[in-house]
Write a structure and sequence with these properties.
With 497 residues, the protein is α+β, with helices and mostly antiparallel strands. It has 17 helices and 17 strands. The strands form 4 sheets. Strands 1, 2, 3, 4, 8 and 9 form a 6-stranded mixed sheet that branches. The protein has a 6-stranded mixed sheet with strand order 12-11-10-13-15-14, sandwiched between helices. It has a 3-stranded antiparallel sheet with strand order 6-5-7, covered by helices on one side. The longest helix is centred in the middle third of the chain and has 21 residues, at 164-184.
Length: 497
C-alpha cells in the first residue's frame, strides 16, 4: 500500500500531473495514453455518445477550453478589463471569451475530464483489488473495486491567494473537484468509465449533486461550512492558487537569494502574477498577486483575427493558429508583431504589462496613506527579476526583455521595470523518478504540477496558502478574511453567498 498526493495542474490547453509517494518521498510525472506528460484539455463526444479524453485524432464533437468557461466569472472579467479606478466601461458579457458555445455545461465537462484523469492515475498505480459494494450509494460512491493505495488531490486554480472575490472561485472548484472524485469512485475501472454513455454520466453527475445538496438543506451557514470541509477532508481534496504553486516550487529550489521577486505564469487562458520577498529561502512578505484572463490564447486569437480577417474567432481557429506558430509554419511577421504588441502591451500600455501595473497600484499603493512606503518598494523592486514560466513562455517576444510595472508619476520620476528571467535559471536536481533531462527541458510547463506536491511549509494551518509567511505587510480587509463569509448551497453550480 502507498499513499499518493496528486499535484494536478488542470490547464486551459493541457493538463499535467506530478505524483508524490508520501511514504517514499519520490515524485514522478505521470505519462498519459499519448505517452506524454501533457494531456490536451479536450473532450470528444463520439458518434456512439461515449467520450474520449485528450485525443485530437478521435472523430466527433470537440469540447475545448471548458476549464476557462467554468472559471470566467464576473470577478475575473472585471479585474482583467477594468481601469485603475475599478471601472468597467461595458457589461461583463462583452468581454467574455470562453463562456459560450457549450451544449453541455462547462462545469459538467470539468467534472467529466477530472474524473477521467483521476481514474487514469489510479489505473497507473493500481494494486490488488477487493470486492465491490452494491446499491445506489455504491454506484455513486462505493460500487467499485478497491485499490490498496490511497490518493489525495491538490488542484491548481487561477486565483489570487486571499482576495475575497477570488475565494468564490476557489469554492467553485472545490465543489467541482468533490463531484469529480465522487463520480470517478462510482466506476470499477477506467475502461468502464470510458464506455459509459453521455446520458448515464450526466445523470450520475445530477444524482451526485442532488445528494450533496440534500445534505445541506435546512442547515445554518456554520453547519454548511463544516459539512463541506468534511467532504474535502474525507476525500483528501484541496485547491491551491496557481501562482502560489509556482512560488512554492521556487522556494523549494533554495536558489532565490534574499530580495524581492515577481513571477509571471503565462498559461493558455490566464496569467498569474505574484510579487513577493524572500529571506533565507522562505517567503518573508507578500505584496500582491493576481490572476487575469490575458494569456497565450489571446496572442493566438489576435493573430487569427488578422489571418481570417474578422473579429469573431472560434475555438478551433485559435488552436489552428497555435499549431501554425508552434510549428513555425509560414508565420506572418507583421501579424505576429501586432498580436504581440496587443497582448504584451509593451508599446501601447495595455495587455499583461498594464495588468501588472494595475495590480501593484491598486493592491499595494492605494492601501498605504504613507507614500514613502510605496517609494521604497519602487526603488527596491526596480530591475529585480520577474521569473517567467508557463505555456506562453514559448512565445518569442512575450517573455523576454523587460516588463514595466510602474509608469513615471506622482510617486517617482522614472519608469520601473522587472528583468525577465526564465524559470530554467532556477532549476536544480528535482527529486523525481522521471528522466532528469526530459523534465528539465519542459520545466516551464511542469513547474505548477511539481509545486502542487509541496504543501508542508505552513504545518497544515491553512491549506489554501502553502507558505509560512512571517511578515504580511498588507493589513487591508483582503487580509482579514474568515471562511465563514462564503458557503455552498449548490454543489454543481457553486452558487455562493
Amino acid at each position: 500500500m502507498a499513499n499518493f498526493l496528486i499535484g494536478l495542474d488542470f490547464g486551459t490547453s493541457q493538463t499535467k500531473v506530478c505524483l508524490l509517494n508520501e511514504d517514499s518521498s519520490v515524485r514522478e510525472f505521470i505519462k498519459f495514453e499519448n505517452d506524454s506528460c501533457f494531456l490536451p484539455s479536450l473532450i470528444v463526444k463520439k458518434l456512439d455518445n461515449t467520450f474520449s479524453y485528450g485525443d485530437e485524432s478521435v472523430n466527433g464533437k470537440k469540447y475545448r477550453y471548458f476549464k476557462m468557461a467554468a472559471a470566467e466569472d464576473d470577478d475575473l472579467v472585471k479585474i482583467t478589463n477594468e481601469n485603475l479606478e475599478g471601472i468597467l466601461d461595458r457589461d461583463t458579457n462583452y468581454f467574455r471569451k470562453y463562456s459560450t458555445s457549450f451544449d453541455i455545461e462547462p462545469e459538467k465537462l470539468v467534472v467529466l475530464y477530472l474524473s477521467f484523469v483521476y481514474l487514469y492515475i489510479k489505473k497507473e498505480k493500481a494494486t490488488q483489488k477487493n470486492t465491490k459494494i452494491g446499491g445506489l450509494l455504491g454506484r455513486l460512491g462505493g460500487n467499485r473495486t478497491i485499490s490498496k493505495n490511497t490518493f489525495s488531490v491538490n488542484l491548481g486554480i487561477p486565483t489570487e491567494w486571499n482576495n475575497p472575490n477570488h475565494i468564490k472561485r476557489k469554492i467553485k472548484f472545490q465543489s467541482l473537484l468533490v463531484s469529480s472524485i465522487t463520480l470517478a469512485n462510482g466506476f470499477e475501472s477506467l475502461d468502464e468509465y470510458k464506455e459509459a454513455k453521455e446520458a448515464v454520466l450526466l445523470k450520475n453527475i445530477s444524482e451526485i449533486n442532488s445528494r450533496y445538496l440534500k445534505e445541506l438543506e435546512n442547515k445554518t451557514e456554520e453547519e454548511k461550512i463544516s459539512i463541506v470541509n468534511n467532504w474535502l477532508d474525507e476525500k483528501k481534496l484541496t485547491v491551491f492558487p496557481e501562482s502560489a504553486a509556482g512560488v512554492n516550487y521556487l522556494l523549494k529550489t533554495n536558489r532565490l537569494e534574499n530580495g524581492k521577486y515577481a513571477t509571471l505564469d503565462i498559461g493558455a487562458g490566464t496569467s498569474d502574477i505574484a510579487i513577493f520577498e524572500v529571506r533565507n529561502h522562505n517567503l518573508q512578505s507578500y505584496y500582491c498577486s493576481e490572476s487575469v484572463s490575458i494569456a497565450s490564447n489571446d496572442f493566438y486569437r489576435e493573430y487569427a483575427k488578422q489571418l481570417y480577417k474578422r473579429k469573431n474567432i472560434v475555438f478551433d481557429e485559435v488552436k489552428k493558429v497555435e499549431n501554425i506558430i508552434r510549428n513555425d509554419n509560414g508565420v506572418d511577421s507583421s501579424f505576429y508583431t501586432k498580436a504581440l504588441r496587443i497582448v504584451r502591451g509593451n508599446f501601447d500600455g495595455g495587455g499583461i504589462e498594464f495588468a501588472i501595473r494595475k495590480m501593484l497600484y491598486r493592491k499595494f499603493f492605494l492601501p498605504f496613506p504613507d507614500k514613502e512606503i510605496a517609494r521604497n518598494v519602487l526603488s527596491t523592486l526596480e530591475n529585480n527579476p520577474i521569473i517567467i514560466f508557463g505555456g506562453g513562455a514559448s512565445i518569442e517576444g512575450l517573455c523576454n526583455g523587460k516588463f514595466c510595472y510602474y509608469r513615471a508619476g506622482p510617486i517617482g520620476n522614472n519608469d520601473k521595470t522587472f528583468i525577465t528571467i526564465p524559470i530554467t535559471n532556477y532549476v536544480v536536481n528535482v527529486d523525481i523518478s522521471n528522466d532528469e533531462n526530459e523534465i528539465r527541458s519542459y520545466i516551464n510547463l511542469l513547474v505548477l504540477a511539481l509545486g502542487l506536491t509541496y504543501r508542508d511549509q505552513n504545518n497544515g494551518e491553512d491549506r489554501y496558502i502553502p507558505f509560512a509567511v512571517k511578515d504580511i505587510q498588507l493589513t487591508t480587509a483582503e487580509n482579514t478574511l474568515t471562511s465563514t463569509r462564503y458557503f455552498y448551497y449548490d454543489i454543481q453550480d457553486a452558487v455562493y453567498k
